[in-house]
């Protein structure tokens, strides 16, 4: 379970001018809510939030003035033009309750269909939606694809984990190995000598013209 400490400040001014001023100083507005309690308006440093996201933190220890609260980043809003984060929603949790989070998926090994038969590995899924206790959230889920030959694929149904419920549909494809076709296959089949010869002929033709 990866955890990241993040400082925040209480925010009471919700006017647009105040929000613009926040963003000019490198901060963004945020909301913290916990079950049935009243939501709390916050502001926080954008760079610190980005660092937590890039560290793949699942749990944030959010410091609100002198108090600290375990929470998850429930949602972020981005600018439709710049794609910059402009707002964040945090949901408070207890470590014993079950929560739903997205966990990165990492493929390991070299598929036999790629290594020995020139196939192409296509990855279709990069994270899984899981439900488990906050203390049991894995930093990532690894999956060995060494056995995949050309025409083979692997789905979520092949993953078995204790104390973790996979919410991503079991028939969802994770990766497959396909035969190289079209331009890619042609590039692999044409010897380098022929390519150099063709380039030389084209250059000679251009010089004559």
Compact description:
This protein is of the alpha+beta class. It has five helices and 13 strands.
Structure description:
By secondary structure, this protein is of the alpha+beta class. The chain has two domains: 3-93, Ribosomal Protein L25, Chain P (Beta Barrel); 101-186, RNA Polymerase Alpha Subunit, Chain A, domain 2 (Beta Complex), CATH 2.170.120.20. Helices cover 22% and strands 40% of the residues. It contains five helices and 13 strands. The chain has helices spanning 16-24, 46-54, 112-115, 182-189, 192-208, and strands at 3-10, 27-33, 40-45, 59-64, 67-78, 85-92, 98-108, 120-123, 127-133, 141-144, 153-155, 165-166, 173-178. Residues 183-190 have low confidence and may be disordered.
Q: Provide the succession of SSEs.
A: EHEEHEEEEHEEEEEEHH
State the CATH topology of the largest domain: Ribosomal Protein L25, Chain P
> What is the mean pLDDT?
86
Termini separation (Å)?
67 Å
Low-pLDDT windows of residues: 183-190
Q: Approximately how much helix is present in the residues?
A: 10-25%
| CATH superfamily heading of the largest domain | Ribosomal Protein L25, Chain P
Strand content: 35-45%
């Amino acid at each position: 379970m990866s955890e990241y400490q993040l400082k925040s400040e209480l925010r009471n001014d919700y006017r647009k001018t105040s929000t613009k001023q926040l963003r000019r100083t490198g901060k963004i507005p945020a909301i913290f809510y916990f079950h049935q309690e009243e939501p709390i308006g916050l502001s926080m440093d954008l760079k610190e939030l980005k660092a937590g996201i890039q560290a793949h933190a699942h749990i944030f220890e959010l410091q609100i003035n002198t108090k600290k609260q375990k929470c998850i980043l429930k949602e972020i809003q981005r600018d439709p033009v710049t794609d910059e984060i402009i707002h964040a929603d945090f949901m408070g949790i207890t470590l014993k309750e079950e929560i739903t989070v997205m966990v990165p998926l990492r493929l390991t090994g070299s598929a036999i269909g790629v290594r020995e038969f020139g196939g192409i590995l296509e990855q279709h899924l990069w994270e899984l939606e899981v439900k488990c206790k906050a203390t049991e959230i894995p930093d990532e889920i690894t999956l060995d694809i060494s056995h995949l030959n050309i025409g083979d694929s692997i789905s979520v149904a092949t993953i078995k984990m204790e104390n973790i419920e996979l919410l991503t549909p079991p028939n969802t494809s994770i990766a497959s190995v396909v035969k190289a076709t079209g331009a890619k296959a042609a590039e692999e089949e044409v010897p380098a000598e022929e390519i150099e010869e063709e380039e030389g002929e084209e250059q000679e033709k251009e010089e004559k013209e």
